[in-house]
């Protein structure tokens, strides 16, 4: 996982007295009340856990793997990682999947969401070189999972782009659409007989804005309001192309589902004035809606507000074109409806306000959106400075999706809490319990949410935060030779929920 827009966050004091705390009970910061008739999760509801290749696999240069932009970046810029670490070894899952499997079986999860490393299977990004040892590894994983009645859910891209592609602009060059389509074809052909749930991209905002906007992530391009938007645009088209390919070539006999994972917060307003609903909607269109609206909305295009703002700002800046080109008819047809489900990564929420005058660089996402954010002082905070426990936000974003996207099926593909890695992790249990309550409340209210995935199975490499923020249900003993996975208290809590299908 990785939260977007950390740098854009404008935290300021929120005046508790004027906040109508209808959804928050003072002192109960990480709790949520039960609502609705059913206290149990439906029989066919699925519980899982998640990891991502670069964060757990290690073996960064073994068995023919090509470098990814995260290998290059962490090696060239250790100073940018909180503890100067990298994913060279991480949890060594490439060699220790057997240990991961023990943990997965212990949890009794219904599915495991993991990602395939593109440069591990296709070291040169295209299909000329197909790395058989990597194919063997993922085949082994998939087969072992299925033998143990754990369904594989595969993310095709989770930040670790082949370094090869940066030679010609990475996500800013639309040739990436073609490269991704051939990569996807290779994955469907190689693993699709057994993998029935595919996620094309994980959190486009969170690699596009830091990667191509504010240079906080590889490939460290600083071109906000331009290159980050190109990255989102090419990601959207690459996703839709892979989806159409699956429908045309594989879905008849493989019968799987293909979706995309988008991260989003929900937004609240403490301004009772006329128009406050519009601010919440605006904030949603500038986050979840940017990519979800073209796929799951009616227009087959970016949200109207976003197109309009950016066109008008581009003109004001003296450009002869808009920095965000709306999709043309050809792309609109391909993109609209290109998802069997919406993958949602939810961690936290914010209060939102109009920024007068707009902040941020000109141009930038922050400046175009004219939004700024704050938190409620009573929200409990995790080790990560952006992560506050707001379970009501999960219930509310699920209802927002129900109402805006025709009740499309939702998989919650990530949700989790960071700390120092203690085994007695009461705060993680509170977070898990209250967010599962949010899911149950949403189901009781007719939301089409069918999967919940906790981030993460094990403590892992948390991008620029290195190993300083731990999200695992299992502790990773980094100092021991065998890198044991040790169950935290939250692991047994989660197992009890999965077994009983209710919250205790
Ligand atoms: C809960 O059950 C009651 C009684 O059967 C019914 O009237 C009500 O509509 C139900 N509420 C929901 C949210 O399903
Ligand atoms: C849930 O989503 C699936 C797939 O989009 C759809 O077939 C089904 O009708 C939806 N269920 C409800 C209750 O809307
Ligand atoms: C981690 O491994 C070291 C060395 O094997 C051991 O001394 C320590 O107790 C382990 N920590 C935990 C929490 O298991």
Characterize the structure shown.
The protein is an alpha/beta fold. It has one domain: Glycosidases (TIM Barrel, Alpha-Beta Barrel), CATH 3.20.20.80. It is built from 17 helices and 13 strands. It has helices at residues 53-56, 69-76, 93-107, 118-121, 132-147, 175-191, 204-213, 227-249, 251-254, 276-286, 288-296, 304-316, 329-335, 365-369, 391-404, 426-444, 489-500, and strands at residues 46-50, 111-115, 151-157, 197-202, 257-263, 266-268, 342-345, 349-354, 371-374, 410-414, 449-455, 474-476, 485-487. It has an 8-stranded parallel beta barrel, surrounded by 5 helices. Helix 16 (426-444) links the parallel strand 10 (410-414) and strand 11 (449-455). The longest helix is centred in the middle third of the chain and has 23 residues, at 227-249. The model is unreliable at 4-27 (pLDDT under 50). One 2-acetamido-2-deoxy-beta-D-glucopyranose is lined by residues 36-37, 444.
